[in-house]
Amino acid sequence: MPDESAHPQRKIIHIDMDAFFASVEQRDDPSLRGRPVAVGGGHRGVVAAASYEARKFGVRSAMPSVTARRRCPDLVFVKPRFEVYRAVSQQIRAIFAHHTDLIEPLSLDEAYLDVSEDRHGLGSARAIAEDIRARIRAETGLTASAGVSYCKFIAKLASDQNKPDGTCVIPPSKGPAFVAALPVSRFHGVGPKTAQKMERLGIHTGADLAAWPLAELEARFGSSGRWYHRIARGIDDRPVRASRQRKSVSTEDTFGEDLIAHERLAEELQRIGERSWERIEKADFRGRTVTLKVKFADFTIITRSRSMAGAVGKKADFLRIGQDLLAQLMPLPKPVRLLGFGLHSPVVEEEDGPLQLGLEI
């Protein structure tokens, strides 16, 4: 059962906008409504977001545009307009602030809210979530889904339960049973590779995970074992942190075969960099240090970084610096099994100030 003693009255909402980038594009261009739309793409690009019409064909975010086009020949690619998405995100956050000051944004299109204090006397966290969703629709023309529960972990799972344009409420009495019935691949904090490892161990659902003793989970998964042990029982005491600041955004990929040729690695880095920049934009993150991670075939790891005086504000600059860092490693002493590429060292920008590439430090 959940540990309710520490925070017996905590009420948390996770709001997740429905196909946010694609929905904004369909809202602003009526000719796109009802059609399969992908935001992003381009030459060797990736999909940043897909409309629900596109998702029916298996198109999803982070998918190479070539694959997306193959799955859905009628797919319409739209260039991202992150300045518009940020403006809409600010509208939505103002709606959140009407109900609570405890807002923890995860990206432009999702956030946790602690509504334990019923500021306007609506009577329940469900009523607050419904009011937020109604105001988002009225003020932005977009839809959002909400998960309502006693902890962040379950609220986030619940927001995905009745998508799109739905609300799911999981009270403390139903938390463990809700988690038990779900596949572990849906759990926040369980990535694809960990999910595969769990499935090889016979752990397919939350109930399977809950059956494992803490000591065995720690032996198999290290320090993460305690987290898995707790969430399998619907326990998550993390508070909503209004001052939470992301420290980095990055993407990494393990190759199907080890690579050593500069040309092949440069192509892979371009692809990984495109995905990473989409995540950077979605998270509304500004950083000044570009970092390249290289894991060799023997599992040894090296990193190379370049720091600027100000934020790296353009994708072209981000990708160029990454390629420069890779070129400086050539020729490589041994084949590579993984590349990681991201942005670190957060920079607080003035809201209306231009983002420019700073001087190197």
UniProtKB/TrEMBL annotation:
CDD domains: PolY_Pol_IV_kappa. Its main location: cytoplasm. Binds 2 magnesium ions per subunit. It is found in: Cytoplasm. Keywords: Cytoplasm, DNA damage, DNA repair, DNA replication, DNA-binding, DNA-directed DNA polymerase, Magnesium, Metal-binding, Mutator protein, Nucleotidyltransferase, Transferase. Mg(2+) binds at D16, D109. It holds the Pfam family IMS_C. Residues 12-191 form the UmuC domain. The active site is at E110. GO terms for cellular component: cytosol. Its cofactor is Mg(2+). It catalyses: DNA(n) + a 2'-deoxyribonucleoside 5'-triphosphate = DNA(n+1) + diphosphate. Its EC number is 2.7.7.7. One of its GO terms (biological process) is error-prone translesion synthesis. The record marks F21 as: Substrate discrimination. It is an enzyme of class 2 (transferase). GO terms for molecular function: damaged DNA binding; DNA-directed DNA polymerase activity; magnesium ion binding. SUPFAM superfamilies: DNA/RNA polymerases, Lesion bypass DNA polymerase (Y-family), little finger domain. Poorly processive, error-prone DNA polymerase involved in untargeted mutagenesis. Copies undamaged DNA at stalled replication forks, which arise in vivo from mismatched or misaligned primer ends. These misaligned primers can be extended by PolIV. Exhibits no 3'-5' exonuclease (proofreading) activity. May be involved in translesional synthesis, in conjunction with the beta clamp from PolIII. Monomer. Belongs to the DNA polymerase type-Y family. This is DNA polymerase IV.
